[in-house]
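RECORD TYPE: inverse folding
INPUT: structure tokens
STRUCTURE:
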């Protein structure tokens, strides 16, 4: 650990591009879910860590599976990441359900980090706890820093596929993973942005360049509080009473 610096965390959204990962019975693709959650996770971790995504769009990182996986590990090594978090959805027979988190082998930092993330996810989502497991996965074996692989739920299970595709659930999962990481690092995530001060409408998480704010939906349009979006861009709002105008600057 480099003291006095923010931890560097690589977030690896599984699959991408020509590799959809697992595809659920309703056609939801693992690669889309992992990317959405990875971006939200980066937003949640921003206050406590430096983050880097191995991909931030729908693309493969190599010409075949092997070079793709190699590129993910290399990205973490080159950047000298302190931790590596790979995000996936599980697939098996339709009846299989729940959350599991993988580390390479027992007894190390990877296992402890996996336990913290698993705990966070199970508590937040209420999905069955399949526990922390160990596997000889390439991205776990080849990374020199503690590495975990999160299987957020079974995309092959119709009920869990419905959750995995849902933006609100994705946000909950990302926050839960971030909470697990923060607990592991002995840090606290800042309190969430207060919900929009209007009730009775559905809310939606809005990711503004990695900062998460809450919007409300009124007649198919998303509204956000001007202070929230301005501060997400690093701006301030000011009410000018003489002109009766709001400035964002
Ligand atoms: Zn996967």
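DESIGNED SEQUENCE:
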């Amino acid at each position: 650990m480099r003291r006095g610096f923010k931890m560097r965390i690589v977030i690896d959204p599984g699959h991408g591009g020509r590799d959809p990962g697992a595809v659920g019975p309703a056609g939801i693709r693992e690669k889309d879910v992992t990317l959405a959650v990875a971006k939200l996770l980066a937003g949640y971790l921003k206050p406590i860590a430096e983050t880097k995504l191995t991909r931030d769009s729908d693309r493969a990182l190599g010409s075949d599976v092997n070079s793709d996986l190699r590129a993910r590990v290399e990205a973490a090594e080159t950047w000298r990441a302190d931790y590596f978090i790979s995000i996936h959805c599980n697939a098996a027979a339709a009846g299989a359900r729940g959350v599991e988190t993988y580390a390479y082998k027992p007894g190390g930092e990877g296992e402890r980090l996996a336990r913290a993330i698993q705990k966070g996810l199970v508590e937040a989502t209420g999905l069955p706890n399949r526990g922390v497991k160990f596997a000889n996965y390439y991205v776990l074996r080849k990374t020199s820093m503690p590495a975990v692989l999160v299987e957020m739920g079974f995309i092959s299970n119709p009920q869990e596929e419905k959750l995995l595709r849902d933006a609100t659930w994705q946000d909950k999962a990302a926050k839960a993973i971030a909470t697990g990481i923060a607990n592991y690092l002995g840090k606290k995530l800042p309190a969430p942005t207060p919900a929009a001060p209007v009730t009775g409408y559905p809310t939606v998480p809005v990711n503004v360049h990695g900062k998460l704010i809450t919007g409300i939906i009124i007649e198919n349009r998303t509204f956000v509080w001007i202070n929230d979006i301005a501060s997400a861009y690093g701006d301030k709002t000011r009410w000018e009473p003489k002109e009766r105008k709001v400035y964002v600057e």
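NOTES: Residues 14-15, 21, 30, 88 surround zinc ion (CB under 6 Å).
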